[in-house]
Amino acid sequence: MAPGRRLKRVAASQPGFLSLKNLDPKSGVSTRRKRVNKNKKKNWNKYSNIDDVDDFLEDIRHQERTGGLLSQKPDDSLFFLDAGPKPKHVPKVPDQLEGKKRKGKLQRPLRIDMILQNDSHIPPVKDVLSHQHPNAKKLRRSAQKAEHLASKGIVTRTQRKQLNRKPLLNKGDKKSVTEANNNLNRDYFDIWSQQLCDTAKDSADPWYLQQTGKKRVKRPDKLNKKPSVLPAVEVIAPGGSYNPDFFSHQALLQEAHGVEVKKQKAEDKINKRLAVNKEDVVTAEIIFQEQVEGLVEESEEEEETPIEEREEDGVGGGAIVLAEKKTEKQRKKEKAERIKEQRRKAVRTMTSKRQQLFQIRSIRAAVKTQEQRTFARQKLRKAKMEAQKSQPRRLGKLKFQPQDLEVKLSDELANTLRQLKPEGSVIQDRFKSLQKRNLIEPRERAKFTRRYKLKYVEKRAFRAIT
After folding, report:
1. Percent helix, strand and coil across the chain, each rounded to 5?
2. 177-181, 296-300, 353-357: lowest mean pLDDT where?
3. Total Cβ atoms within 10 A of residue 252
């Protein structure tokens, strides 16, 4: 074999080699048909050439979008008669008559408008959702039912309610005359005023206000009452001034002393209850006696106890005693005694009622005394309720703790206002005031609890230094 032919065969066997015989001169793509087994269904669409079918369908769709199919159009719209060259344009003489419009290029639509015109013969896609109505079937049935009832002359309940509604304006009322806009002396009219809105709502039909939800909800009477009679800002006693009087300052110190004494008494009471009595302290000797208890003495008592007593104790009260059955004579006798007892009680009740007729004066005095006691209790209860209005109520699980009195001792008093040191906190004072006036429940500061324990890790840089 010639060396040139052998070299061609080797080059053609390479995977990237393209033969010039099977190349398309326009696209440069190989036109060699690939051998594929078309007996399998999965290869039908994969290796079938349907470009001609797609081109035909695209042409049909293009014709439908641009005026319809050519096969269905008349000949006049497709062809025209060529009668030679057109005559030259002759300028028209303007019309002499007034009011007559000129006809010419001005009446022809613009090219851009002609392009935007819809010349497609395909109807637009129908929007089904735009034609659907919620509860359309129910509304249609209700309308048919209303027509059926109207034909029979029956008035429904809804129509009766509408007829019974009171009109907004009576027949005798006259409409107010609207003032002119150019009247400078007219009153100022504020369309956004709240009073105007309230007047319009009050004057409107109550049924309309109720149905539209514009009617105001009735305010409960409880919301108009204050939860406490205490003022929002309480004025401190005269002894709390920066330059107080001696007696007023001593009175304030006495009050603060009483508060501290109460706190100390409460602490002493708790400590006294929690204190351990010296006599109740367990010693080593008592512990030893409790451990040895019953080891020697029980054995001696068991030896001294005779066997007969033990047997008698065992045979004790475990036996069940059956009640004897009563005879018919005994049952009749008991029944007669019960009847006699009932008659005796009835006679005694009648006698006591007759005796009360002679005790009317004493009974009247007892009733009067009871009424006086009841009135006194009611008066005391009202006074207690009035006193409770100025006291904080129990609104939550915590009890209200009053704020500590801000008092300065005699040697801490400042001579001038400049030397006065502020005490307390305004925020804490307002917070306690809200609690005292029953506006918020007593609270305590939330305790910080760590979810996970801190993990101490020694860094590598620190470890290298140490």
Report:
1. 50, 0, 50
2. 296-300
3. 21
If pLDDT is split at 50, 70 and 90, which confidence band does 99 have? very low
Q: CA 244, CA 249: separation in Å to the nearest integer?
A: 6
Q: Which two tokens stand for residue 56?
A: 């035909």
- Buried b or exposed e, range 56-94, using 16+ CB within 10 angstroms: eeeeeeebeeeeeeeeeeeeeeeeeeeeeeeeeeeeeee
> Cβ atoms within 10 A of the Cβ of 329, count?
8
Q: How many CB atoms lie within 10 A of CB 239?
A: 21
Q: For residue 193, what are its two tokens?
A: 């005023």
pTM of the model: 0.39
Phi/psi of residue 30, nearest 5 degrees: -70, 135
pLDDT digits (tens, 9 = 90+) for 409-424: 888 888 888 888 888 8
Backbone angles phi, psi at 124, to 5 degrees: -65, 160
Cα(211)–Cα(162) distance, rounded to whole angstroms? 12
pLDDT in tens, 106-139: 577 888 888 888 777 777 777 777 777 788 889 8
CA-CA distance, 158 to 142, in Å (whole number)? 13
* Predicted confidence (pLDDT) per residue in 237-264, tens digit: 898 888 899 999 999 999 999 999 999 9
Q: What is the pLDDT of residue 17?
A: 47
pLDDT at 347 over 70: yes
Largest CA distance in the chain: 163
How many angstroms separate the CA atoms of 408 and 414, rounded? 9
Per-position DSSP letters for 197-221, written without gaps between them: HHHHHHHS-HHHHHHHT-SPPPPPG
The residue ranking higher by pLDDT, 242 or 93, is: 242
- Residue-level pLDDT at 303: 55
d(CA 48, CA 43): 8
Contacts (Cβ under 8 Å, ≥6 apart) of 165: 205, 207
What does pLDDT average to over the chain? 79
φ/ψ (deg, to 5) at 23: -90, 140
Q: What phi and psi, each to the nearest 5 degrees, are found at residue 186? A: -75, 160
| Token reading at 292 | 């040895």
Q: How crowded is the C-beta side of 250, counted as CA atoms within 13 Å? A: 2
Backbone angles phi, psi at 425, to 5 degrees: -135, 135
